[in-house]
Amino acid sequence: MKRDGGRLSPELIKDFLTGYVDGRVHDYHASALLMAIFCYGMDEGELLAWTRSMVDSGTRFDWSHLEGPIVDKHSTGGVGDKVSLVLAPALVACGAKVPMISGRGLGHTGGTLDKLEAVPGLRTELTIEDIRFQMAEHGMFIAAQTPDLVPADRKLYALRDAAGLVEAIPLIASSILSKKLAEGLDALVLDVKFGTGSFLPDREKGLRLASRMADLAKGFGLPMTVVLSSMDQPLGRMVGHANEINESLDCLRGDGPKDLVDLTIRQGGEALLACGLADSLDSGEAKMRTSLENGSALEVYQRFMKAQGGQGDLSANLPLAPNESAFLAPEDGFLACVDCRQVGVALQSLGGSRVEIGGGLDHGVGLEILARHGDRVQRGQPLATITHRAERGLEGCLKHLGMAYHVLAEAPEPVGETRTLG
Ligand code: URA
What we know:
CATH superfamily of the largest domain: Nucleoside phosphorylase/phosphoribosyltransferase catalytic domain
Bound molecules: uracil
Helix content: 40-55%
Number of strands: 13
CATH class of the largest domain: Alpha Beta
């Protein structure tokens, strides 16, 4: 028995997960087993069988009738991470197809679906028929998990969230990978974030997740490249929803901030290499860069957004909340982002992210970060512009920005470099 540290057989796992989806196994049984897994973990064979049964609980897409390799990326999430919005259309412009099932933000990290919903009319809840149409006509979609895609994960994730059991490495690995396997991919890039703004700030834990997911992908024969990237300060300059859409448009016009463009191009280069559309990382990156500079990625972006219901001029910037205030440097020195998570909490103070599942959020509020970790700054210099509505949450936002950024007498250690695992 798992309760006593024993091993789960593949048959038992299958029975449990099918029983849980069809209602024969109750939440109280399931939470007891999840707690035992949280405490004792799962070995490689158990994790493989668990993930296989999760995938088998629902539909698995088959894109064999379409031309072009099927690729996707997944990020463990962070502050200002809008890479998917740029990467997916750029990959399609380079000849790939991207069936991107994405998530919503909760707490300090943003979610791609919430950002997309800042665009008037845009639908993120697509039917299987919509998804098939998008893939055939536009080569991509970005949408929420449908009810028939890994239903075991939908139920288990809600239970884990309610029972405080999200942060178990085998459960995270199987949850993420089961959805990606159900997408019917030829290759996957996994961006594991480390640092103070990440989902798993403990670097060791992040590395363990990366390595377990790499083993698991290998077990399923899915080519997967793991990119490890820093979330020690926000990615790009914008944090929010409408303003992150606007910054994604800057990237698609060939004019995005360097850290965001570099990470997008790196992940895209890895994806093109993994799926055979490039014969080296350099040539994959060059293709990605060209797609951003020649407007082809922007064209794909406008087409897929329009097909998902986006209204108006989809290449025009979205309007933001009407009021602006500045967050100022309290003294002369060097800027250090000491707790990037607090930048996400600062956005939450303005009403810009959800505090509970299903709660609302304000797409128009946000932050523009004007100085980077390590920059020399002067007292009174604006470090961020806060876009808000009639000062709602402004005091809390300023307080959390003050917790995120300190001004030091000496230059701080630089943030970590992006690298691939292995
Ligand atoms: N994202 C997921 O999809 N699942 C997890 O368990 C954690 C993050």
